[in-house]
């Protein structure tokens, strides 16, 4: 998979994910394997009506992943392209807006704290929406893939999600099929969140 490496040395991961409150037999199959740590986190996703780049903030860190390609098995290849710490300078926020695919606002500051960024940059846009997301994730390692089952609370609404990811797409789809997760649609985080908040 070295051909997927970018110049910074980051190797993107292939991912399969679904959102449903009834994983059925698939959850039984996953839980036959030893559980890893259960982790909880609170994050803010910035959703754009005209982009499917994954943009979120956790622990004052701006994190962006872009969808590189979708293969014949419908697996998605996601590449991390930015991790920026608040306060963010305007030059970094301009890069974020390229991912949003919306026009740049008028900046009144040289840099923005997270609160200023939300209140003054994101909220005025008709095409952007900040969504509060709380995750409780339980991890598993299956066929050397990262597998998780999570409970996700999105602006007060609760749904569950399961995912399989790894650098090797053949191993990801093999694991998805073994776990019987292929009975569900592949829905990435951005699509899942947009569905929950009624965004196009």
Write a compact overview of the structure shown.
The chain is α+β, with helices and mostly antiparallel strands. The chain has helices spanning 25-31, 90-100, 114-122, 169-178, 189-197; strands spanning 13-19, 35-48, 54-58, 61-70, 76-85, 88-89, 111-112, 128-142, 145-154, 157-166.
Name the assembly state: single chain
Radius of gyration: 17 Å
Number of strands: 10
Q: Note poorly predicted spans.
A: 1-7
Shape: elongated
Structural class by SSE content:
alpha+beta
Which architecture does the CATH hierarchy give at level 2?
Answer: Beta Barrel
Average pLDDT across residues?
A: 92
* Main beta sheet strand tally, sense and closure: 8 strands, antiparallel, barrel
- Our measurement of the CA-to-CA distance between the termini, rounded to an integer number of angstroms, reads 34 Å
According to CATH, the fold-level topology is: Hypothetical Protein Pfu-838710-001
General description of the model:
The chain has an eight-stranded antiparallel beta barrel with strand order 1-5-4-3-2-8-9-10, surrounded by four helices. It has a two-stranded antiparallel ribbon with strand order 6-7. It has 200 residues and is α+β, with helices and mostly antiparallel strands. The protein has one domain: Hypothetical Protein Pfu-838710-001, CATH 2.40.320. The two termini are 34 Å apart. It contains five helices and ten strands.
